[in-house]
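2 proteins. here.
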Amino acid sequence: MLNFVTRFKATNRMWRLVLPTIPLPPRETVVSWVANYEDRDIELAIIKQKNYLSSLSPGEVHQKVTDFLRNKKAWLEECRRRAAKERLIQAERQVVEVRVETAVTEGAAQ
């Protein structure tokens, strides 16, 4: 795992490589991204949206990347909540099925 400073520098290098015509975001913005998001999410926010971001003003670009990261994080958390809820529903169904099977078996044995 890369340390914070290495990740910070890598994010700045990636920005310069992918969006050379757009000034780097303020240092505080990049620090926030590196502190709160995974490297792959930052890469997605910058690289996958390169053409779209290139058409915006620098201030808009920085905000759009931040918005993308926030929305992606919220979306992932929602997906995790849904998956956990689905696992709970599956477990409850299995319990009900076992109870029904037990009741049927006990009823047939009498």
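next one coming up
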Amino acid sequence: MIERALIGCALAALIAGCAVTREDTADADAPEEAGGRAWTSPVGLDYTIRPTANEDSLCHNFEEAGEPALEPEEPIEAGCAADDFCGTARAKVKTSIVNAAVETFASVPDLLATLDTRVPNAPATQRAPEERRNVTVDALIYAAKAVEDHDFHLIVGTEPVEDGEVTFFNVEVSGLPRSGVHRTPLRAARDAYRAIFAGAVPGKRYATYDPPLPVRITGSLFYDTEHDSEIERGECSPIGTGICKPCTAWEIHPVTAIESLEQP
């Protein structure tokens, strides 16, 4: 994969850049320092947060050079409440939690070893049998952003191995269903996400973190049929930014719990 080849060069020199933007409109016009800005997490650890347009970001995306990093979120549906899911593709699946026991994995590669099947014809309104699993996995957050449909995208991955390669995976904190039993637990997941990034909640462009943020993520599995064609061609998913892209259409979506594993 091209992305993985590039990681061998980039990760050896850069241990995860980082750019986080505030979610609230009041901070949308705040100036951003050229080298990123300092952020202290709620547990007291120091990070640098950078936009992907910044060349010092591990997930640097040259196509975003010159783009403003701080912008307010905008729903794609008029009248859509701030936390409600505003998308349409497999909406019922993305906003519901599987009724199954939780399987625990120590790392992203361990989880991916159980996800070697493509599910290109997953039904629109319910999960395919392969998706009916709940999982917990420990990972590092490399990049995150808020999406117009009100999901939060997190590109998570492993520690760099000796050759600098990282295995990336996409997880999504879903927007809320308009009603139903899943609305309350998914709201709790959104609250936990915001608490982890207190004072620096990502905005609508990818932000990266230096060093990457250790977390434990729990949620239901989801196969993104919209990006199956890339996987079939042996490419990585277009989700993500720069070299920080998963090479699978599998995701955790929705996230039902997210916990910081930072050690003060």
